[in-house]
Amino acid sequence: MGWQVYRHDILISFSNFSWLTGLPGALDPLMEAYNESLTHDRKFYAQDINGSIAWARANKNAGILTEEEFKEIARGFGIVEDEWDSDEFQIKPGVDEDIHTANERRLGEVIGQDIAGKLHTGRSRNDQIATDLRLWVRDQLRDIQGHLEHLLQAIIFRAEVEIEFIMPGYTHLQRAQPVRWSHWLLSYGFFFAADFKRLKNVIDDLNICPLGSGALSGNVFGVDREAIGRELGFKGLCWNSMNAVSDRDFLLETMSWGSRFMGHVSRIAMDLCIYSSQESGFVKLSDAYSTGSSLMPQKKNPDALELLRGKSGQMHGLLSGFTTTLNSLPSCYNKDMQEGTASIIATISLLSDSTQILTGVLTTLTVQPVAMRRALEPSMLATELADYLVKKGVPFRETHHISGKVVALAEAQGKGMDELGVAELKDVDQRFGDDVVVACFDQEAAVEKRTAKGGTARESVREQIEVLRQLLRTGEMPPWKVFSSS
User: Fold this and answer.
1) Which position among 13, 15, 18, 293 bears the catalytic label?
2) Using the 8-state DSSP alphabet, how is residue 254 labeled?
3) Contacts of 94 (CB under 8 A, 6+ apart)
4) Which residues contact 189 (CB under 8 A, 6 or more apart)?
5) Residue 320 is a catalytic residue
6) What's the number of CA atoms in the CB half-sphere (13 Å) around residue 308?
7) 168 secondary structure, DSSP code
8) Are the C-beta atoms of residues 167 and 251 closer than 8 Å to each other?
9) CA angle 307-309-311, nearest 5°?
């Protein structure tokens, strides 16, 4: 007679549990639901099947399976995969705990259990899920890599076509100096270019094969792990079987990459929220990525941008949550790691959708160059006055102070700096020449003076565009110069 407790309206007899009695027993229905992972890892069905076929081939080559048995397993899995592809796969609740048991159960129904029952020889679900995860994340990140390339292409295209548009550049959300709209676009282009390069490294680092590690101690049948890895497209092996089944750092690295990437997404989204506001009016968002108000018909809300900004917080939370899950786990596989499945699926979905949404926003928005020009205040050229005097030999700290006096004079008279006459400027400092107004109070000229590499002058911006193009062509950005150690 076992113990009995009531949970809500369900009577539970602890004598039914195999983990307590050592005998077969029924699993608590809540525990059954709590334990299953098929809700999430069903997404890995193709990777699980490919891994199983590679494993069957390795067992065939090791003499565990005959050639005919291997061919039958491969044939059966072809049928199983077709069922998943066509959404005809019938899941059996209470039987199919995860994608591994579901696929193997269905394979047995298709080809018979006498052959299907040999498939799992020498393999554990520990190295099986580690393999499925690496394969699936690798495939998904390659898709995201493609989306990110499209985002960079959209930035490059707009930067080239709209290179003549000049707008205020901001620091501390205050109008600072005139810059090209293209220069602002490319500032984020280089954030995303760095993300593009880092993503390549993340994919490269995770692309190693754990299959053949068993539960923790390795394989006793002499399977060729290198052949398995090559068949599955891995670049190499996980070299320690205990590490292979317990390593989820590649999930953390993916989430960490995503957290940094979404930080960049949130920043450009914030800028575009401001630029699309009625107060700025620099850009007009497409109806495809904005909505109206339920109460105020005159409003057009930047919903896509606000969601992009908000989802960066969700991405940071996914990283933080799974980092905490892995913290202080004992060695080898532990069930806690199963929580990484839902987290990485949510991560991939968020990153893929966000990249495509941002690309859509940037591709379809309309730039308002007249509004940009209108926002170019004369005070933004105060630095031009300082630079003008520097070229006459005046120390910059002194010129900075002098240009500040000019700003104060214009504000006191209630007019723009460009409305001050030469005589008024000379009253501030006699070293201003008769050409000062023409030399300093031209927004286009101020932009074109920034000719150093990385600046906002037209040719400098074109050079930056070419650097990003080279990244997309070769995967690498050229250095400005190779510096010697001397």
Assistant:
1) 293
2) H
3) 32
4) 152, 155, 156, 159, 464, 468
5) no
6) 30
7) E
8) no
9) 65
Selecting among 8, 86, 172, 328, the annotated active-site residue is 172
Q: What are the beta bridge partners of residue 209?
A: 237
> Is the distance from CB of 77 to CB of 39 less than 8 angstroms?
no
Q: What SS3 class is residue 92? A: coil
Spatial separation of the C-alpha atoms in residues 250 and 133, rounded to whole Å: 9
481: left (phi over 0), alpha (psi -120 to 50) or beta: beta
The residue ranges of DSSP E strands in 60-190, in sequence order, are: 166-171, 174-180
Is 293 a catalytic site residue? yes
Q: From 62, 212, 229, select the one nearest 138 (Cα to Cα).
A: 229
Q: What share of the chain is helix, strand, coil (3-state, %, to 5)?
A: 65, 5, 30
pLDDT in tens, 426-468: 888 889 888 988 888 899 999 999 999 999 999 999 999 999 9
Report d(CA 371, CA 126) in Å as an integer: 60
Tokens encoding 301: 């809300």
Do residues 83 and 89 touch, judged by C-beta distance below 8 A? yes
pLDDT per position as a tens digit, 130-185:
999 999 999 999 999 999 999 999 999 999 999 999 999 999 999 999 999 999 99
56/74 Cα distance (integer angstroms): 8
